[in-house]
């Protein structure tokens, strides 16, 4: 059974955010607004900084949509801070970078690779109730494209605000949705 | 631990394909070429036909890339045939539609909702060795966009053909890749 | 131990009935009147529509006898609706068609084939207390004859209304019954 | 899971047959020809003799169809002999009456009522490979009608002899059967 | 540990008694007076009727001694009735014949042969508190002699009525008993 | 399940016999001829000596029938010797007196009272194969009558020597036996 | 861990004492005064009577010291009585002889030989609180010397009455004891 | 079950003996000659040195009888050496002093007090086969008297050299023994 | 997981201290002030006295720092006293020497060598809350240097008194400490 | 039981060393020469860099003594490389820095804090056979002093090269050692 439709499990972790001191984050911080949680294997490794920078480029748009962004690796918050300081790509990041050295969050989201102790490249969209709405995971070496998240967010928000309607494939904001009813069964 | 990097588990099932008689499919059919396996909850329901039709629209491109496509629901192959016959959207489908009433495949890919007996909306990209490379799952009501698959396929194929290089975020065919080495640690 | 004499186990399912919207059915709907529950393997398959049509032909008579009829397969209610729309034989059906994709009801009545995920061809007569009175199950390929149900219903109803009498073999309405007593032991 | 499609389990028992001495019967005697096994609760009880007599009336026809008949109760073979001697109805029986005081056969066919130590009224049709093809079980007080067995036997034999065809509902010898194929899906 | 000195375990069964309708018997019917419970393998078999007839010949004497008699086999009460009707020997029986098809009583008294489902030839003398005082069991083929029960009953009753005295070997009513005391230790 | 029909279990014990030194006895000594094993609670107690003396009076007759006799209590062989020396009744005993302080034999024959550590008053007849043929057990205070053993021995020996015949109730040497056959079922 | 320092475990047994009727003894009878419990293998055996007679010769002295004496074997109280009557040595015994046929007491004091069912030759000194103070056990064939008990009793009583003093090796009444203190550590 | 009659269990330990270097001792050193093993709680404590000195006084006599002596406490061999050097009483000891800090030997002889980690005051006599012949254990504060060991040794040696004879109570070298035989049962 | 940061487990033991009588020590005595617990294998052995003497030389300094010192071996307090008396090195010791013959404390601090029953050479620094702050353990044969403890104590005390500061490597009293803050991450 | 005297457990990990590419390290790399393994909680944290720099200052001396040095934290080798690049203190390090994100090595050496996922500050000295000779662990906030390692190494090497001698407390190269013998027991 996938995690889709399940509520995020509890955790406590230390995090870094540009311009703030280190602070504690729990699963409660993922609730109350829409959240994107973006796992990646390791600070100071190769694909990772480009993915995080790409996500940063969508950050303003996501904020406008009421979405908060959290990146997570099994590195410590100390390392996040150092990476932020020394990497041009990562240095631009404004969202919260969570340290998960105890591997609790990576286990909670089922993305911990036990052999390496690192997280798979998983992206999760979470609604304001803390319920997971979409999951996307790529093998190592295949970067993600953060821009595809925007439409997912809009579709998920539309469905939440309009109970009884569903967004068809390739749906974009403003295009038509479907209203499930006996009559359209087999009519599409 | 996610399914990323694991080999597809064994199954045997009956399938429908336009213009052919019913035939048997096993996990071996997912190997030897790139494969996309697309799960959806139910034939004759709402979001599903638009998603399957959207996938059909990418089918020629995917074929050119050497990718075979399989859709799976827990409906029988009889129902797939009937749906194909009676639905305009579904009637256009040329790829293989697998029936999974025994729920084996849905369990193998960790997308069976035990309470409803239906599959979550999961899309899997599988390499020619039968190893899962990408996963994407949406909650009910949120349609997928098949066009995003094209870039994932290209990135995965590039990484397979060029060991020692990785595709950064938002990578598109022809753009630069990264060659992991000691020197670029912390330099991106 | 057979299910004869046991009460139907709890379930919740979605159902289709011609001229009505989809609705929820539970084991409580099988009580309060006599019920026939007719399992079959799959919508859009071969023997099944002739059996369901045959049962429909007895529906008026069964209604007159105070018997409600429910068909069940592991297909969804969406598929039932589509089948009803597209099949001449099935299109005539007026009774309730229950969808059992979670396989709960088929398991409850001990007719789920685990390997195929489909139900055996079982017919159950249930009294107003929800207690199973008769069972009949045929292997695949052997159709049932719904007309034999009428006499079973009448015999079961007679026995319920006349405690202390039993219906001998080949009993038909109006013919004599037996009153068990010490005196007729060994006298028949 | 019902017993349909499963092979009869092993047993050893003593039996009585008119005009022969007591003899031993095993599950092997149910194979090599078609067999009907008819369970009933108790010798010298009420519904039972009428059912057994009714079955005897079909015995010649069943023999002509290559079907052997076995009745089974948890009484001993001694009691079967005595009942045969003293009951007019039972005295006419020519088929084999098996004694099952150890309750093994009744358990094998899932019809033993543990509380009473008696068998439910179950009738089983078994093919020459010892595989169960049809089951019918009635609650106490509701007699069976042996004549309905004739058509079941014919349908089961037809399906066995004509692989690839199925008998629709209400099928009788000589009437049409169905040949499952892709083309008739949804066409009936 | 033998059953001597233990109280009879609970059971519920149907019984036959000449001149009465079928009736229910429980372990309570074995209490309140002295009881003899006589197990035998099977109605309509060979040694059994002679033993039961022999017991009947002692029945008047036993009744005078305040002893009730119960015979038990794993046959049903229906069969007991039929046997009583058709056997000269058994037809004379006036005591209660209990049917034990559920094998509960035979198990309670440790005389069930699991392989055959029949009871061993055991005779039990039970006091008014339901406590087992004597046991006698013979292998198949060796008949019992009911007359030896009379002296056992008298000895058991004497001991119950005269606490502090014991009946020596071969004791008969009226002959001397022993009063256990320190003084006769080693003096007999 | 009673011990009737089961073979005696292994044991090793010390025994006393008048006119011989102490010697070892095992279950093998119970085989090769017919044996009677007579348990009693305690040497130097009350009912016991009269029973043992009574058994001695039948010893010559039993020897003539090829039956060896063994008495058993949980006392030691030392105590048996002392009792034999000091008791008039016991002093007459010529058969073997086995000491069972380890309680093994009493447990093997299911007559050990765990609370008191003493044996119940059980008498067992064992055939030359070591198989138990009859059991008789009395509560404390009720003496046995050894003369009833003679007929049991004769019946058991007759059945062993005449396979296919059975001894009816109250059978005595020379009187008729029964030959079980289909024809006499229900005729006695 | 030895039994030294542990309290005697509960038991109930029958006992014999010259000039009294049989009576019940429990572990409570071992408390309230000093007690010696003397186990031996078997009445009417060889070493045992000399040991018990030897203990009797110290009985008056032990009584003067406030010590009660109990002998125990797994023989019954009946046998104790008979032995007392017939043995010159044992006939002199005035203390209590406990019968332990249930082997409970022998087990409680860890001296039961499971293979033989007899007790080892163990002597236990028990203080008024029921706590075991000394143990002495000899293999079969090696007699004990009861006179050595007197000094043990005196030493144990002295220690009990003079908390803070200990009796050195070979201590006899009246000789010096030791007062443990820091100063004499290593000074003896 | 006491340790009487059981063989000593394996151990390896370091030991001290006056005039020798430290050396290893195993259970094999207890075999091949008679051995006395004397446990005591603690070096440098109170009763202990007087007991060990008392044992030393018997050492020459024991040696003459072919008995080797071993003392054991849970102290180390280092401490034994130091105690021997600093204590007048202990300084006289010529026998082997075993260190048992791993508590193995104390556990093997069932004298370890788990709470304190110290050994009870137990003395064991072991025959040349390593079989324990006598046990004596005193509570803390009650010293032993080594002279009583001499007679035990002589009796045990006599019994070993004269199979078939036993030493009665209070036996001393040269006095009469008993020859167990049927004739003296109950004659002592 | 090491014991660092865990609270000392409960124990009760006897101890020796020069000029005082023996007294009881528990884990509570390790709290309320800083404590050093120093394990060593055995009294009267080789490296040990030099280590304990070395620790004594730091005792005054440690006392001035508010640190209490406890040495522990699995020897008894009796042996500690004797060693103190007879060894020049050990005779100088003023701190508490705990006896641990029950091995409880050695187990609690994870330094018991099960095979030898002796403690490893472990030194523990414990804060006033009973929480272990530093551990140091050497293999047998490698002596410790107590003077290195002084700096550890000072560092631990400084950290406790100045929450928010940490002592860098080679820190000595008076030298600078570090104040962890976001700003110095990666700056050292 | 501490890890002292046990062999290092197997592991595989990635490591960084200045001037080399990333490379794999296993437990075999710790053998064949003396090794120091130094755990610390986290790269880019506070006490850690001073400790690692301090260790670097001893590196030349340790190399001369034939000792290889390995630092370990649960950070990745990527992070070690980055830290080496950006920290002045860490930048001087010439020894191997092992990444242990899978936490295997930290668990093997019993220093993983499960709650934080970080290693305790433990230093281990390992001999050429891979056997752990010394352990030292400090709580967070208390830095280690690498110079104290030099003497430990020398003592451990001396003991290895001179079997039969031990180094007393505060031993330094060239000073006297002790030769354990009976004669010096209690003489130091």
Automatic annotation (TrEMBL), chains A, B, C, D, E, F, G, H, I, J:
GO biological process, any: hydrogen peroxide catabolic process
EC number: 1.11.1.26
Molecular functions (GO terms): NADH-dependent peroxiredoxin activity; thioredoxin peroxidase activity
Residues in the signal sequence: none
Gene3D superfamilies named among the record's database cross-references: Glutaredoxin
Active site positions: 48 (cysteine sulfenic acid (-soh) intermediate)
Keyword line: Antioxidant, Cytoplasm, Disulfide bond, Oxidoreductase, Peroxidase, Redox-active center
Location(s), subcellular: Cytoplasm
Catalysis performed (reactions): a hydroperoxide + NADH + H(+) = an alcohol + NAD(+) + H2O
InterPro entries according to UniProt: AhpC, AhpC/TSA, Peroxiredoxin, Peroxiredoxin_AhpC-typ, Peroxiredoxin_C, Thioredoxin-like_sf, Thioredoxin_domain
Thioredoxin domain segment(s): 2-158
Pfam families in the record: 1-cysPrx_C (PF10417), AhpC-TSA (PF00578)
GO cellular component: cytosol
NCBIfam families in alphabetical order: AhpC (TIGR03137)
Subunit: Homodimer; disulfide-linked, upon oxidation. 5 homodimers assemble to form a ring-like decamer.
Family: Belongs to the peroxiredoxin family. AhpC/Prx1 subfamily.
Role according to the record: Thiol-specific peroxidase that catalyzes the reduction of hydrogen peroxide and organic hydroperoxides to water and alcohols, respectively. Plays a role in cell protection against oxidative stress by detoxifying peroxides.
Name listed for the protein in its UniProt record: Alkyl hydroperoxide reductase C
